Amino acid sequence: MLPLSRRQWLANTGCGFGALAFAGLASANGPAKADSPLSPKKPHFAPKAKRVIFLFMQGGVSHVDSFDRKPRLDTDDGKQFAFDDARVLANTGMKGSSQRVMKPLWKFAQHGRCGRWASDLFPEVAKKVDDLCFVHSLHTEGVAHGPATLFLHCGSTTFVRPSMGAWVLYGLGSEGANLPGFVSIAPSTGNGGARNYGPAFLPAVYQGTPLGKAGGSADEMTVRNLKSAASVADQQKRLDLLRELTAEQMKRTPGEAEFEAVAQSYETAWAMQQYAPDALDLATETKDTKSAYGIGEKTTDTFGRQCLMARRLCERGVRFVQVTYGDGSANPAWDQHSNLAKHGDHARAVDRPIAALLADLKQRGLLEDTLVWWGGEFGRTPYAEKNGTGRDHNPGGFTVWLAGGGVKPGFAFGATDEFGAAAVENKVHMHDLHATILHQLGLDHEKLTYKYAGRDFRLTDVHGRVVKDILA
After folding, report:
1. What is the CA angle 466-467-472, rounded to 5?
2. How far apart are the first and last CA of the chain?
3. Cα 315 to Cα 310: distance, rounded to the nearest angstrom
4. 3-class DSSP assignment, residue 27
5. Which candidate, 316, 27, 42, places its Cα nearest to that of 179?
């Protein structure tokens, strides 16, 4: 048998690797090459924001204990009223079930020049209300964590759909060549898991890159966990060989999306090993900066590190960064059905880091073109669950806030009813929030489409409107 030529050997052993979307890895900075699917793309119109940081409070923070003040909860505490409970309605179809009103466990006060109400559950964030834009009338789909979390991220409660970060990366491409355009810090493995940062039917190059996991320590995403034991020269040789293999394979099977996706994963891994350690290494930050985020203190260290990493990733061109606060247990962190006081423990872990992130972005001139989005998959009921000491899920009306990125600072929009049970004034659906965030990035949610299975899909499906009232 005649020996194989180098070309034949490459062709025969190249199966399993795809065409590489070379991301300009020869240079340390700069955008992806023009022929890459991740190359920067023009938005539909001039954007107000270049990037998004989504602070996901997994499990559902109680809006009536944090940012949506309802005096009737104090005056009618302990009284029985009929409420259209979402869980009862979903399970039995029965409306108007009798429930015991439960007053907030934290005291409200007005803050800032704008005089917005916030409770002492989040004392440090409350000091930043002049930079925040509150939406008090959000409502969503899904009464359980799984469907509601998927809807929050993907715009659908059950069907496999691309995540919002994947849509953003698909629409705008990546600003930098050497870091992913979409990063999910400490994502949860439950309630949708990888689907919450996945691309679904979009090309796989648009999927999010996870760092660590919910409930894990910040050490899981630090330098030593990204660096390879091999030398840079050895890694480069391996990557060069993979490039040759995939190039030959694609001559035989051109247009294979699976090959391209696998190849892109190798490119991303190589780039992450070379450049992510610097992006995630907090040693270069000043002592004062780390102290502001609560780094080095047991309660705030992990989330403080994650928030500071988010800022550093944004500085390096990452389009969409999600930071999840979750404890990694079967029940999401903020899911206090029987012990609402536990909200206090979680708030102490995130309050100071979030306030520091806002101040840091503003001081560096990044807040004006970075849209910060804070919230959970739903809110919580204004009444005690089963006459106990906690609150149940409430998708019918709750609060999120936005900051920077062209939204009105010190502003509040919409309202829930006098108990905080349901959105009643200037209602904003989750599809509307998605449409508005895309709009601030220069993307028309009705034009950001992808043809699959014979029809055009989009993040907002056939719904959604831009909430122009909250835009500066």
Report:
1. 110
2. 74
3. 9
4. coil
5. 316
Nearest to 191 by CA among 140, 143, 146, 142: 146
Please state, in angstroms and rounded to a whole number, the distance separating the CA atoms of residues 216 and 290. 20
Place of tokens 């930098």: 176
Residue from 127, 143, 121 nearest 68 by CA: 121
What gap in Å lies between CA 470 and CA 468, rounded to an integer? Answer: 5
Candidates 298, 272, 301; CA nearest to 178 is: 272
- Please enumerate in sequence order all residues whose Cβ is within 8 A of that of 282, keeping only pairs 6 or more positions apart, or say none: 290, 295, 305, 308, 309, 312
At 438 the pLDDT is 98
Q: How far apart are CA 80 and CA 45, in angstroms?
A: 51
Predicted TM-score (pTM) above 0.85: yes
Q: In terms of Cα–Cα distance, which of 236, 239, 25, 174 is closest to 247?
A: 239
The distance of Cα 157 from the centroid of its chain, to the nearest Å, equals: 17
| Helix (H/G/I), strand (E/B), else coil: 151 | helix
Nearest 5°: the CA angle 340, 429, 472 is 100
**Cβ neighbourhood burial of 41 (10 Å; 0-12, 13-18, 19+):** middle
* Inter-residue contact 85 to 79 (CB < 8 Å): no
With a pLDDT cut of 70, the percent of the chain lying above it is 82
| Residue indicated by tokens 């008090």 | 136
Mean pLDDT of the region 216-227: 63
Given a cut of 80, whether residue 208 has pLDDT beyond it is: yes
Over residues 269-320, the pLDDT tens digits come to 656 666 667 778 899 999 999 999 999 999 999 999 999 999 999 999 999 9
List domains and CATH numbers for the chain. Answer: 38-222+281-470 (3.40.720.10)
HSE toward the beta carbon, residue 95, CA cutoff 13 A: 0
> Is the C-alpha dihedral spanning 432, 434, 440, 445 positive or negative?
negative
pLDDT tens readout for residues 309-361: 999 999 999 999 999 998 766 568 999 999 999 999 999 999 999 999 999 99
Q: Report the amino acid identity of residue 439.
A: H
